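Hello, quick one for you while I still have it in my head. My current little project is about how a certain protein chain folds up. You're getting the sequence in one-letter code plus the fold written as tokens. Would you mind checking whether the tokens look sensible for this chain? Here's the protein in full, and shout if anything looks odd to you:
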Amino acid sequence: MRGLIIPEDFEKDQYILKPIFQRLFQSACKPRARVRVCQNPRLRGIAQALNAERMLEIVERYRGMTDILIHCVDRDGEVGRRHRIDQLESLCSAATVFLAANAWEEIETWILAGVDLPSEWRWADVRAEVHVKEL
């Protein structure tokens, strides 16, 4: 299995997303899955990551080279973000296996889910924090 993870900006997110998805694929009985993070074209922020033309360009570029494309963006407190990525998922899924997810609120929160938080932190507060990197 070959998976391509498409973050809104790979520069830092790749160090979070690649190990998470490698482990997810292993847990799903795909121990030899190859996971790559999309670096070309380089998306520069949420505006490009939510742009249908850019996503279709990536789908077309990697069609046949991957089995699944997974698009991951931050929610950033935007209530309508899920609806927007659902639209992208529908559009791109016509051509390939394309899944889209938005982190609640930031991808960095996914890392915190795998560690013991300080005792004074409540998980609900961490998830509710729009700028979790500022904690």
The first strand starts at residue 2 and ends at 7.
